[in-house]
Design brief:
Number of helices: 11
Helix content: over 70%
Structural class: mainly alpha
Largest sheet: none
Oligomer: single chain
Amino acid sequence: MLESILDPGRWEVTFASMGAFWDGFFVTLQVVVWGLILALVLGTVLGVFSTTRSRILRAISRVYVEFYQNTPLPVQVVFMYLMGPQLLQRVLGTPAPVPIPSVVLGFVGVGLYHAAYVSEVIRTGIESVPRGQMEAALSQGFTRVQAYIYIILPQTFKVILPPLCNQALNLVKNSSVLALVAGGDIMYRSNSFVGTYGYLQGYFIACAMYFVICFPLAMLVQYLEKRSKRAPKPKKLNITLPETAKEA
C-alpha cells in the first residue's frame, strides 16, 4: 500500500490530470460561496422569526429547523436532484422536466441545510442581547424591524462570529455530498480519477484542495475566539480644560 502511494509514476499520472481536479475545485468554491450567502440570509431571517412574539413566525422557524436538523443532507440533495426538475416542470408549465445546474443544486442543498443551524446560532445570539435594548429602541420611535437591523443584529454578530465560522467550515466539507449526484465537485472528480486509474493519489489531491479552503477559515475561527475572550481596553478621553480651570 505504502509503495503504491509513493510510486512516482502514479503521481505523474495524477499531476497530469490536475485540470479536472481544478475544475472540481472551482465548482466546490462556487457552491461554498453561494451556499454561505443563502445560509446566512435565510438563517438570519429564521433566527429573528424564532425570537419574535408571533406564534406563527416562531412555528415556521421551529418546523424548518427540526426538519433540516433531523433529516440527512444526502437524502435531501438526492431528493432535490430527482424531484426538483419535475417540480419545476409543474410550476413553470414546461413540456419536459427542467434540469437543475449542478452548482445551483449544490449551493441550494447545503445552503438550506446549514440555514437551520445558522438560525439556532442567530437565535442564541439575539437572546444574549438584553431585552431592555429592544424596549429602549421602540421607545425612541424605532420599528421592530429597524431595531433588529440597527441595534440587535449588529451586537448579535459580534458574539456569534466564531460559531458562524464553524458552520462555514462544516458547509465546505458537506459540499462533498454533491458527488452523489455527479455534481462535478472536488469529491466527484477524485472518485472519477480513482475509479478510472485505481490510484488513491486522487483522494490525496482532494484532501489538499479541501484543506486550502478550510484552513483559512479555521485560522479565522481561532482568531475570533481569542479576540472575543479579550477584555475591551478602556478608551482614553482627551479632555481640554478651560483656561479658568487651569489657572485655579
